Amino acid sequence: MQTAIDATGTAADRILIADDEDVFLEPTSLFFRNHGYVCDCVRTSEEAARALAEAPYDLLVIDINMPGNTDLEFLRDRPQASDFLPVIVVTGNPTLHTAVESLRLAVVDYREKPLDLPEFLETARGAIEKARVVRVMRSARKGFGSWLERVNRLEAAVMKADAGGRGGVHSGDLNWYLGEAVQGFTDLSLSLVNAIGTLNRGIPEGQADVCRLMHCRRLAAYESAVRETVDVLVKTKNSFKSKDLADIRKKLELLLKSGADEA
User: Does residue 169 sit in the same domain as residue 194?
Assistant: First the structure.
């Protein structure tokens, strides 16, 4: 399936609506399309599972009382995808049981029909943006892990050398290790900057602060680690001081561990 492009030339967000009532599907999907979203509609949980397997979506809106999801069993039994997919549950018959179960299943919102569509649009936008931030941060954490492996190899090479630089790898090899580490970190930094820029373009003017949107403390920590790491790498390019590499490695390892605990 081809990626949909909106009028600005950027990829449009994709929404899947699962509901067996046309009176809900048609006006809701039309409303989202009129606001620049690609919106697909399905009427059973089987169709929803097939759609999710065939194409990536940025948001799932699903009714409770529909074939295959009369008691949230579709959400409960659906295999968790590697990419975080936000889910909004809608129902014309809200109950305490389904509301509590929705919270347990970590859906982002639970809405009673009929919907206030303009208000629901803001909820959907927020859910999509927050999910995108989650994916960016998870990707960044994996990238930092890969980068740390390169730094560890560089540190190991430095530790093999004696005070005079003998007994370890040659300086040419050290330069290769360092080049690998710097390139990996540069690629990661550019990817993170581009992802955050993409996020900000989708947020109304005056609100283009991803950390404020997410109440995110990790991004500031990542930025600080990035700056310190770059400084150390620049210095290490000439001195190859193993202690500096070890210290920054420990800091990044702690950062990664705390990020994993919060995810």
Answer: yes
